[in-house]
Amino acid sequence: VFAHLVQAPEDPILGVTVAYNKDPSPVKLNLGVGAYRTEEGKPLVLNVVRKAEQQLINDRTRIKEYLPIVGLVEFNKLSAKLILGADSPAIRENRITTVECLSGTGSLRVGGEFLAKHYHQKTIYITQPTWGNHPKIFTLAGLTVKTYRYYDPATRGLNFKGLLEDLGAAPAGSIVLLHACAHNPTGVDPTIQQWEQIRQLMRSKGLMPFFDSAYQGFASGSLDTDAKPIRMFVADGGECLVAQSYAKNMGLYGERVGALSIVCKSADVAGRVESQLKLVIRPMYSSPPIHGASIVAVILRDKNLFNEWTLELKAMADRIISMRKQLFEALRTRGTPGDWSHIIKQIGMFTFTGLNPAQVSFMTKEYHIYMTSDGRISMAGLSSKTVPHLADAIHAVVTK
Ligand code: PMP
Fold first, then answer.
1. Domain layout of the chain by residue ranges
2. Do 14-44+318-399 and 66-301 have matching folds?
3. Which residue, 287, 235, 288, is CA-closest to 263?
4. Which of 44, 74, 169, 259 has the CA that lies 20 to 30 A from 86?
């Protein structure tokens, strides 16, 4: 009965790794993967995560019963505090509900389905371009997806004028997806002053902010700095949704641990919102997994472990910033034509190089360097040893 099926294409992002794995070349380089790598090119389990896991193992009272539908309650409270700040008015006034979800993706999906069911506007505006999964998640959640201008290829920076025009023209009440920091794939974030203008415009039109926070702490190296745009929106007393992921900042990729928070106008509304979120979650996966959320809770509740985490997080962010500098310098020394300053100006895990699909394909074929066809490279996948190879390839392709 399934013989009529055609072979589905690989996911455009995950497919890069599939192609990389098949390449026998010893100099091959995978810059498509959205996961942190050490200077030796290895995946990293944070020391603080190892310690938290040891604590969990040593605790013989721990059991493996189902979590409630909303997940681990302590994790939810600590996650809200982490993203909104301990002194957040929304937390103080108890007008926020937070549910543990399956990492960032699951949080976006649950939030999307909740909005499709209970919010009066069914259109969500996402940045052009954005993470490839966003349009699929929200379409399947039952929302209509439209885009707003974000990236300016000419400056390799923000198209702020286009952004304001498009959001200004969106129907009142529309949902707007905002990357909290370290925009994927462009690495281009608004300044704080620009965020303030975005906030004013969105609030004046009653646009509903839905923040995607997949890189808190990964952009600047500071958890508080990276959460600032969200906190500005929460401070004005209005509503918003926030999807948090611990994949990158705690390196808990495969644990699938994240949270969806909905900030409401009152504690009473927040309680009812939570009751409806449970109806979304129960038929989807019943309840979330316990292990990842337990690790996060151990780290966030303990002052020493928390401090240790911030240091390890900063070290990851700093290594990425250093890769940006090294790549920029390597192109400068080669005299590679063009302005490459966007490499050091952009933020977070990715650089949007400006290379086109034909150039990407040349670099893969001739240099065994793998990246998504939009020219996005993961800075976390680079090391001091591999920067020269990448710089050689970029130089070759732009001078060819
Ligand atoms: N949003 C953005 C912008 C991302 O880049 C990612 C990870 N690539 C996610 C959400 C979600 O990732 P995860 O489901 O692994 O937390």
1. 14-44+318-399, 66-301
2. no
3. 235
4. 44
Atom of ligand 1 nearest to the CA of 245: 16
195 has catalytic annotation: no
- Is the complex ipTM higher than 0.90? yes
Q: Is 212 one of the annotated active-site residues of the chain?
A: yes
131 close to ligand 1 (CB < 6 Angstrom): yes
Q: What's the pLDDT tens digit per position in 250-306?
A: 999 999 999 999 999 999 999 999 999 999 999 999 999 999 999 999 999 999 999
Q: Which helix (H) or strand (E) holds 105?
A: helix 103-118
Question: Does CATH place domain 66-301 in 3.40.640.10?
Answer: yes
Average pLDDT, consecutive stretches of 10 residues, N- to C-terminus, the chain (400 residues): 94 86 95 92 96 97 96 98 97 97 98 98 97 97 98 94 98 98 95 98 98 95 96 97 98 98 98 98 98 98 98 96 96 96 93 94 96 93 96 96
Amino acid (one-letter) located at 349: M
pLDDT at position 11:
82
* Residues linked to residue 243 through DSSP beta bridges, in sequence order: 212, 260
For residue 356, the Cα-to-chain-centroid distance in whole angstroms is 23
CATH topology of domain 14-44+318-399: Aspartate Aminotransferase, domain 1 (3.90.1150)
pTM, rounded to two decimals: 0.96
- Give the mutation target among 83, 101, 105, 260 for probing the ligand 1 site: most ligand atoms within 8 A of CB: 105
Residue 273 phi, psi (nearest 5): -60, -45
Does 247 contact ligand 1 (Cβ within 6 A)?
yes
Burial 288-302 (b: 16+ CB within 10 A, else e): bbbebbbbbbbbbeb
Amino acid at site 6: V
Centre of ligand 1 from the C-alpha of residue 260, in Å:
13
